[in-house]
């Protein structure tokens, strides 16, 4: 009987919550249904900004989970900065009242950029390789899959490939040196060269490369000299099996997930504030609901636009309650990151938004991958980052719920897992 075991190396795994968990939680479950035997390797003590224990019930009954402790410099940073016991958010989110450019912050950023390469999880590489080498000798697998970021996990898989010659698939949920915040790192020339050397080694040595968008595919093909496979992000239809739209007593604009500074839609807030002042009847109905961690600039812009009295903030809710929230709103807000890699940003949230059958206002490039997907679906609009939103037009389109007749089946995580299974064969 053919070996159907696959080792999946992922930093994000339940009970950790957030978007990083969803892709491989669902892929492992559906691969199990397709006859594969997933073995998850993940940290026992990750630095997870949020916990979502409800996700534990989605792990496949035959999925084996291996855990080993990880040491991360964030643990030392929190102790030195008086934040011991607190969770630090990733993605360069500045907090209210946080002093920018302080000595500790600048020093930690320089050390992060130049000593912890490719990322703050690098201390996990060597002990993981030792542990997994022994594990694979005793229990061989048909393939190793690493998913990043963090890209240190690709380096674990690279060493295992070298030692065991097991087939290796490297999954890039986001780019490495081309990711939006890479240019914010205070890298030395040596640090930059090391990043590029490690990235090139993964491109060369992995048996297959996977990306989540067409623009990422084109960019990686140019850098790697080979064409990666495209397996998009998606949504789980099961999440919407009992989904029913609820009447919205307000005009609720809903956003789920974090908003960093690059994703903060300043032009949306400014134009909405102007429209509210000119239309008191609409102001009486308006509600803005933001679920997730926010950069300090978001509240600053809302205050400047006079929108704070209309806004409800929720730091985190479990994923199943996020789905519930999608059922009762008038408009879903989907801002993309205003960065050089903007055309290739296609998040899992986009497909959950589409599955909800609610109107969507996206902020981003009209020629990007997200825009191409939205263009095939009714009730969606995309506006460039700095363009004021024509709110009278947007509100008018929200009067009737869209009937999305174009199938979302290609973006079902089960269908995407079938593509992955075909690649494994």
Into which percentage range does the β-strand content fall? 15-25%
Largest sheet: 7 strands, parallel
Number of helices: 15
Helix content: 25-40%
Please write the CATH class name of the largest domain: Alpha Beta
What is the fourth-level CATH superfamily of the largest domain? Glycogen Phosphorylase B
What is the fold named in CATH at topology level of the largest domain?
Rossmann fold
Number of strands: 13
Tell me what the CATH architecture of the largest domain is.
Answer: 3-Layer(aba) Sandwich
User: What number of domains?
Assistant: 2
Average residue pLDDT: 91
Could you name the ranges where pLDDT drops below 50 across 5 or more consecutive residues? 85-92
In a nutshell, what does this entry contain?
By secondary structure, this protein is of the alpha/beta class. It has helices at residues 19-33, 73-80, 103-114, 125-138, 152-164, 189-205, 214-224, 266-278, 280-285, 296-304, 319-326, 348-355, 369-374, 391-397, 413-424, and strands at 5-9, 37-43, 64-68, 143-148, 167-172, 208-211, 229-230, 251-256, 286-291, 311-314, 331-335, 360-363, 380-383. The strands form 2 sheets. A 7-stranded parallel sheet has the order 3-2-1-4-5-6-7, with helices on both faces. The chain has a 6-stranded parallel sheet with strand order 10-9-8-11-12-13.
């Amino acid at each position: 009987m053919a070996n159907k075991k696959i080792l999946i190396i992922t930093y994000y795994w339940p009970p950790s919550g957030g978007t990083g968990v969803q892709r491989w939680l669902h892929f492992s479950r559906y691969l199990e249904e397709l006859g594969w035997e997933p073995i998850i390797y993940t940290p026992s003590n990750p630095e997870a900004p949020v916990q979502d224990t409800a996700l534990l019930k989605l792990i496949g009954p035959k999925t084996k989970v291996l855990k080993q402790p990880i040491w991360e410099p964030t643990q030392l940073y929190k102790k030195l900065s008086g934040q011991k016991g607190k969770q630090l958010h990733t993605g360069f989110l500045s907090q209210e009242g946080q002093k920018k450019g302080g000595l500790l912050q600048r020093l930690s950023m320089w050390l992060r950029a130049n000593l912890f390469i490719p990322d703050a999880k690098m201390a996990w590489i060597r002990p993981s390789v030792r542990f997994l080498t022994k594990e694979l000798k005793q229990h061989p697998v048909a393939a190793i899959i690493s998913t990043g970021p963090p890209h240190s996990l690709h380096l674990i898989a690279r060493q295992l490939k070298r030692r065991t010659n097991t087939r290796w698939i490297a999954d890039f949920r986001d780019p490495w040196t081309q990711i939006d915040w890479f240019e914010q790192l205070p890298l030395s020339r040596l640090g930059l060269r090391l990043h590029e050397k490690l990235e090139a080694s993964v491109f060369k040595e992995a048996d297959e490369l996977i990306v989540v968008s067409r623009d990422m595919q084109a960019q990686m093909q140019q850098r790697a000299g080979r064409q990666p496979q495209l397996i998009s992000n998606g949504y789980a239809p099961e999440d919407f099996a009992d989904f029913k739209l609820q009447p919205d007593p307000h005009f609720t604009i809903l956003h789920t997930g974090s908003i960093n500074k690059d994703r903060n839609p300043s032009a949306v807030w400014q134009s909405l504030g102007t429209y509210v002042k000119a239309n008191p009847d609409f102001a009486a109905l308006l509600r803005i609901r933001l679920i997730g961690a926010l950069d300090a600039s978001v509240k600053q812009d809302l205050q400047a636009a006079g929108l704070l009295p209309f806004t409800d903030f929720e730091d985190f809710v479990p994923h199943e309650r996020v789905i519930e929230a999608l059922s009762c709103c008038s408009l879903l807000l989907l801002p993309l990151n205003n960065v050089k890699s903007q055309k290739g940003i296609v998040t899992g949230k986009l497909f959950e938004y589409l599955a909800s059958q609610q109107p969507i206002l996206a902020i981003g490039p009209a020629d990007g991958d997200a825009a191409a997907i939205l263009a095939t679906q009714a009730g969606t609009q995309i506006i460039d980052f700095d363009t004021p939103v024509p709110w009278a037009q947007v509100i008018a389109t929200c009067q009737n719920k869209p009937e999305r007749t174009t199938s979302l089946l290609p973006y079902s995580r089960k269908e995407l897992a079938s593509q992955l299974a075909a690649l494994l064969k």
